[in-house]
Amino acid sequence: MEVSIKDKRPTWVLPALVSVMTLVGLMSLVELPVPPGRDQGIFLYHGWGLIEGLVPYRDMWDHKPPGIYFLYAIALKLLGHRYVAVNMLDIFWRLATVAAIYLVAARLYGRREGLIAAIFYGIWAAVIGSGFWWTAQAEGFMVLPLALSVYYYFKDEIAANALSGICVAAAMLLKTTAFLMLVFLLAHILITPRKTWEPFPKRSKALSFLFGIIVVAAPLSLYFLFSYAFDDLWKTVVTFNLYHSEVTFPISEFFRKFRFLFYFFPPFWLAVWIKAALDPEEKKEHAGFVTVWLIVTLLMVLVQRKYFLYHFFILIGPAAVLAARGLGIILDYVFSRNVFLKRALVGFVTALWIIGGTAHWIRWVYWPYPIHYRSFEFMSGKIVKGEYFGRFIDPKGDLNLVEDRAVAAYVRDRTRPEDKVLVWGFEPLVNFWAGRLAPTRFISNYPLTFKPSHGATIRLREKWRKAFIEEIQKTPPIYIAVVHHDINALENESSDEKLKEFPEFENFIANNYARETQIGDFELYRKK
What we know:
With 528 residues, this protein is mainly alpha-helical. Helices cover 65% and strands 4% of the residues.
């Protein structure tokens, strides 16, 4: 299955790729000052907690796989204890992914398609990844290991097959839905007939691939086992997520967002499929492989049944590779010896589609965000941070970064670094900005307030509630902040209303705390 990047590399390839990466880097600069949203706040707390010696799931609750927490910890450790460090990592990671997408498309179709795919991926990733809520999400980080898994898969070396497995395992550490990619690649190894020139039997390739998976899974499993956290990991990432998958959005939301994000690409995909069907010289297995890769990423979105915009990030990789080949086919036709009028018409329509589609995408998707948030004014020093953060306020009251910062400053000024602060809501970002750890693993109230749908999750929620009360009794926080008006996509009641459904905690506050002040939607209670 060896597919080589043909011929000696032309001198223009490296400068062209660097130019593409430079363009993507410049487009991504608008992300640099964008403050964290709710998800990023949870990940920041986990990254900080890892640096402080805490263990995910045992000491910090969230239902994502652990990969995203380790990435945030690396960013905070290497680039400083600030949210901008994560945005910097996100941008560097995006540029590395542009290079990986180039490698994949170049290996399958040639350097021209590699550069086209890099351009398509880079522009679309910079646009989606620079919007608030969408920065530094697990799906954005997943594209790199998924792309590299394909790149190494198409190298007929046992070590490369192991590297492909390692990359798939790395993607699974970011989102368990990447298991579908594992199934796809393993099935492709076992089902695809062995070519006469392939040096290794299918069994050896499959075992090498699985060895790569084990190389990642084994040490991480041992880490959680020896940290006495494996049971917590299982109950959170597996048992709880089986419930969490029941919180669904209508399928119409999927089609609406897919059309919004990917309307530009299907004409180029169609060119690939037509060419594969009609031309015996076209590499049908490559067209089929990339098409199935695209379908697998679609399934990764569909099985979650949430359809948040950042979930679609993983589609951009195969979408760009397949579209790059489609544009390459069109270019071959335009510069062929066919009838001039036909070639001119195809070239004109293609150019119009590319220019119009890209301009529309940048004008109506990319450009409005820095203008609305006033990012350019903030980066140039024309407005201060408080005014800039004031642009990131959910009109429904779901999130208010100005209030988050104000509460963080308030409790930081009235507590010692070793004191604990509990936020009853979805705002561990307050803890991160205040530099005060929570007294419990339950840094958000979601695992304590979700509506259980069957016996296993009913028992799990009650177990977690009991553990929560025991943990805050053992280490009472100096402050408890109860959040109002924080209804969101997962909870249809605010945290102060949810408090009334948890009488043990409500009584704990009443008996041990006195109301001190209110800052926006945050009602603060201080220990008596």
